[in-house]
Amino acid sequence: MSSFDVAYVRSQFPALKRTVNGRPAAYLDGPGGTQTPQRVIDAVADYLAHHNCNVHGAFVTSEETDHVIEEARAAGADLLGCHRDEVSYGANMTTLALLLSDALARDIRPGDEVLITQLDHEANRGPWQRLAERGAVVREIPVDLTTCTLDWDAFERLVVPGTTRVVAVGYASNAVGTVTDVARAAALARDAGALSVIDAVHYALHGPIDVRAIGCDFLFCSAYKFFGPHVGLMYARREATEVLEPVRLSTQDPDPPCVWETGTLNHEGMAGATAAVDFIADLGERHLGMVEARLPADLQGRRRAVVAGMLAGEAHEQPLARRLREQLARIPGVSLYGPPEEAPRTSTVSFTLDGLQAVEVCRALGARGLFTWDGHFYAHRLVELLGLLPRGGLVRVGLAPYTTEEELERLVTAVAELARAAR
Ligand SMILES: Cc1ncc(COP(=O)(O)O)c(C=O)c1O
């Protein structure tokens, strides 16, 4: 296909048939969690209906469950561009990050330094701030508040060879959509002998991820942000895991990737995560014509299709997001937050409206069937520094492959009405 088939995409999501007060629901809340296509729902139901069991038993449903887990690792590997033994599953990103911080804490000595950013979600700050309990000095990479991008000069000054032990950076800001050059961040960490930890939770549906090209040690994402169920994934570079001692029971498999997986996993969620990756791959196959010229030559099979699917979704969303920003900017009282137009960004658009708290805007939009999020979205530090906490934070509009131009026109019309009423 040479253009994005949004009608096909929408036909796959039962939730999109919902109406609110007689109007179709517009799910512009994707950064908080996307909707789920039928094949993911079917995969979860099929697991529970026909294969539900614990692992490593000598009978068929347990063998099938072992297979479901292997399949989920293979899907994660195709999503991230790594080996399946480097993909661990957990309850969510936050829990996996806390497990990693616990493992790192054992090797922290007083005076070691840890770098976090002012742009990140608390889930990529709090776990590393906890290393202060072991005597680590936690430093913040500042954000340029006019562009909502990292201050790279400060970043370079803050990385101290031999002293900096951990560098934690987000791939994309879930609050304002800034995409950060995580390969550059990982290289700075590597050159200083520090471990790099990348939070790709917001980025994961907004572009292909290649952990080898990034050169990071750890990377997180959450399946519920890319059409899957509520499970988290962690890429842990094999050599980086080998020198750590994650917390585990004596009976637990000590080898990666299981060493990061405490207790019984969410098997049905993993079955759904595989189906979500397959769905993205299906989008890629259907839209190869749109993105083929941009695909790296060495990619094959599902990995190639996943990369194509991510590129196709973005090719659909980016022009819509640009137009949305232009239209919102023309409404008196609207202030947009995020990087400059030419800077890399996701299709997430955030703004404030004079005279109204963010929650008042979202409530009024919600009554019109337009689902948007208000607040700080756990990117508390950034929203605090922007001075927006007293205003209830930001209004966040998240675009997804199922978003249409008509939905965004409804949104712009509604915001313009609210702006007129608030004056
Ligand atoms: C950028 C970012 N990082 C981390 C998280 C936390 O992910 P989880 O809910 O899987 O713990 C979120 C959730 O919204 C997020 O947007």
Q: Kindly provide the name of the CATH class of the largest domain.
A: Alpha Beta
Described by the principal axes of the CA atoms, the overall outline is globular
CATH homologous superfamily annotation of the largest domain? Type I PLP-dependent aspartate aminotransferase-like (Major domain)
Radius of gyration: 21 Å
From the helix content, strand content and strand pairing, which structural class follows? alpha/beta
The low-confidence parts are none
Number of helices, where a helix is a run of at least 4 consecutive DSSP H or I residues? 15
How much of the sequence is in beta strands? Answer: 15-25%
What distance lies between the first and last C-alpha atoms, to the nearest angstrom?
A: 46 Å
User: Helical percent range?
Assistant: 40-55%
How many distinct beta strands? 17
Q: What CATH architecture of the largest domain would you give?
A: 3-Layer(aba) Sandwich
CATH topology of the largest domain: Aspartate Aminotransferase, domain 2
Largest sheet: 7 strands, mixed
Number of domains: 2
Mean pLDDT: 97
Give the distinct bound molecules. Answer: pyridoxal-5'-phosphate
